[in-house]
Hints:
five-stranded mixed β-barrel, fumarase, globular
Amino acid sequence: MAGIRELRIPILPEEVDSLEVGEMITISGGVLAGRDAVLPKICALIEAGDLGSLSRFLRGGVVFHTAVSLAGVGPTSSNKIEIEGSFDVLSSVGVRMHLGKGSISSETVSALARRHACFAVIPPVTALLGEKTRSSKVLAFPELGIEALHLLEAEGYPAIIAAVNGRSMFESGTNG
């Protein structure tokens, strides 16, 4: 594991499968930004078969657990019920990476492995991420304000792979 791997969105299942826990990466491309207010709404659309044009942003996509405000973006805790509960559903339609902070359960680690998806932690450094965010626009649920679903154009967001292929940095011996 030498250097930092650069990933571009869309991310392919085989790219996820080749990642290792603890690997440092950068992410570039259209990152979806959403947290506990909007992710359950997206899951409800998926379950109703009513994603419409949002589906193109999910296939091979990255969901960053954050709100978007004038202060910038920074990760929120990914183990909140509304957020962690979205991992499997979002991964089932092609989301390849969930990006946030904090530990996730062994059940979620296993679900990610089944779906060829992963979880990466991102440093809570709003100033750095602001520098690496080229643009932001609301895609859905504008009534949620800063917690609406946004599309961020990222260039080199730094992260560390925390859970992939049934393994996690949060639990020893997790093998899926």
